[in-house]
Amino acid sequence: MAEHVLLIHGWSASDKSMARVGDLLAAHGYETSDVFLGGYPSMDDDVRIEDSGRRLHTVIAEMQGDGRLPARFHVVVHSTGALVARWWMAEYFPRGGAPVANFLMLAPANFGSPLATIGRSTLGRLTKGFTNGFQTGTHFLNSLELASKFQEDLALRDRLSEDGHTESPFSESGTRPYVIVGADPIFGTGILGEKAWDGTVRIATANIDPHGVTVDFSKGSILEPDFRTWRRRGPDETPFAVIPDRSHLSILKPAPKESASKDETVSQRLEKLILQALAVKGADAYRTAIDDWKAVCNETRQLAQSGAEADALRERILGRASSDGDPFREFYQIVVEAVDDTGLPVDDFSIWLTAPKKTRETQFKAGNSVTRIEIDAQLSLIQDRHVNTCHKNRLSLHIDRRELLANFLRDRIPPSYEASLAAGITAASPGKRVGYFNMDGKEHSALIRLRALDPGDETRGKRFLKRYSTHFLRVILPRATSDDVFTVRPLR
């Protein structure tokens, strides 16, 4: 029986953009009549991802009803198509049972794109929306913006859990997810100064294995808040491959001749990874893919290193030993959401990176002034800081993992400080009768453990940050009010 595949495109593209992937499948035994191109109007301002996901459900039911699709088929998506397909499965198959066997994501925008705000801008409407009535898909781009609430809400339905429930549309023996992302930026996008991305999505935001934690300062103390790690939904790990030779566009052209590398092994790798993913039949083969794809990531990671071995690898893959290794650095994405203990958003807050000063109890201690360490962290570790335009209490940080571990924590932390990364947070009082932490009229800073060099308890933050990943950090601040927000006195 022939394998059936549904291909779904990304934002601002059309179904034809997936044709080259379909050609690859046809060349390897998939009947072209069983490979379908799915499309949706991502550039219309009135359409949401949820609208396309609902229609996807209807179309699949119709196709299965008339025999064009069997009970089980594969889905291959690009970029924003991952959000459409993930929402569909989370909405209609939250506990599994989706008709999808293997779910392959090519350069998915799972946790946003730094280009979303540009697409929504006047410049974006004039350029991308010129042939579409100057529409660029407001709601799609809101969902695609870094630190959007949509991304976190979706992750809490298919990959993360705050309440302990672990049901998911994904499983090793059911619907199996995979991610392939390139590290070769689209030509011309270098002007934006990004690292570790493909010209549209960052590697850390493509990964479908996010992490999350709630840090509650209304419980515990400023130095030791309640730290609740979110649980994993679905497989603990998914096959994730970072390939050095493909951009956000060329990943849709799997043929070796479209590779940025002249190395035969590397140029053929995208084809092999796609075919491997769609050939998986069960849990054992899925775990084999996880290990195989880790090896691919390990090789790509070496391109950012220094030394004779890395020089030889760059010579083989990139054509010259002196090639820039920065595009292959590993980064973390941290998405911070600040709320008070009543659930209200805390819009006016500041967050920074620092190292805690040692005390006799070796506890974290918040300082009252900016330190050299904090200036260093701001300049060397944070590549980008973005406040979400729809939700001011949410922001994202793009953090250089290699710089953190190889230089910052090992060489630039004075002996009087812990070799550990922390996030400091301060929130401005909304007014004279409402404040955070207490009503003493002062601003209070608190510190959150994120990453230490020494191994330790992950539930306390020592190993919270993971390579190539997005991390959700929900911070709860105690809301304090003055006594006169409500008073009672005798009538006479």
Written overview of the protein:
The protein is an alpha/beta fold and 492 residues long. The chain folds into two domains: 5-210 and 229-318, Rossmann fold (3-Layer(aba) Sandwich), CATH 3.40.50; 330-484, no CATH class. Helices cover 28% and strands 23% of the residues. It has 14 helices and 19 strands. The strands form five sheets. A six-stranded parallel sheet has the order 2-1-3-4-6-10, sandwiched between helices. A six-stranded mixed sheet has the order 8-7-18-11-14-13. A three-stranded antiparallel sheet has the order 12-15-17. Helix 1 links the parallel strand 1 (5-8) and strand 2 (35-38).
| Helicity level | 25-40%
Q: What class would the helix/strand composition place it in?
A: alpha/beta
CATH architecture of the largest domain: 3-Layer(aba) Sandwich
Unreliable stretches (pLDDT < 50, length at least 5) are: 361-365
Total strand segments: 19
Whole-number average pLDDT?
A: 92
Distance between the termini: 89 Å
Number of helices: 14
Largest sheet, strands/sense/barrel = 6 strands, parallel
Strand percentage lies at 15-25%
Q: What name does CATH use for the topology of the largest domain?
A: Rossmann fold
- Strand line-up in the sheet with most strands: 2-1-3-4-6-10
**CATH class term of the largest domain:** Alpha Beta
Radius of gyration computed on alpha carbons: 24 Å
